[in-house]
Structures are given as structure tokens and as C-alpha cells.
Amino acid sequence: xxxxxxxxxxxxxxxxxxxxxxxxxxxxxxxxxxxxxxxxxxxxxxxxxxxxxxxxxxxxxxxxxxxxxxxxxxxxxxxxxxxxxxxxxxxxxxxxxxxxxxxxxxxxxxxxxxxxxxxxxxxxxxxxxxxxxx
Length: 134
Fold this sequence. Notes:
Blueprint: H1 2-20, H2 66-69, H3 74-87, H4 95-102, H5 121-133
Helix pairs in contact: 3-5
């Protein structure tokens, strides 16, 4: 009887321990209407006209990896790539991109092209990386 109680107690403790473990997941792109993951430190605001508080902030704060794009179709990767430009206020001639970004509350275009000097090193890396998959 005592060993049976010990087994149940051990099982209960294991279940409790497993339920309290937090799972660290790969950040993903939230669907429209979801808030962006705030687990990242916010990048310094060199340019006050860059949109922050978007679901794409991570593209300015960490390098994209293959895991970020492996299950995305070409259109989703295209949105990721162009979101870097959109956050810096670029207008889009492509009606699909233009319609998508105008539907985002944070999008405030004010220029036709974004100078390369406006991007931080992580954004430059991500532009080159995502261009391979676009």
C-alpha cells in the first residue's frame, strides 16, 4: 500500500512539474488582429518615423532563419520582406502589397524609396536573407 502511494505521489509530482515548465517557442508572425510578441528588447529608435509595436518588429531585432520561412509560401515571405520597408514608411506600387499594408493600423507611408542608411544591420541582413526566398 505504501509503495502504491509513493508511485501515485511520484506521478502527481511529475505531472505538476511538467505543467509548470514554460515552453520556449520560436517566435512566429502573429495573424492580423493579434498583438506582437513583446518578449524582445525594443531596438533603439534612430529614426522616429519607423513604425514600432507591429507584428514585424522582430525583423529589426533578430536575424531571420530558415525556420522562420520554412512553412511560409512565397506571398508570406514577400510580406515579411516588404514589411521592413513598410515600417520605414515606403509607398508600394504593387496593389496587393499596398492594400495589405494600408489595412494595417501602423502603416504610415511618407516616401517612395527608403535609403539603405535607414536600415540597421539586422534589417539589412534580413532583406538579403528574405530576398532569397521571395
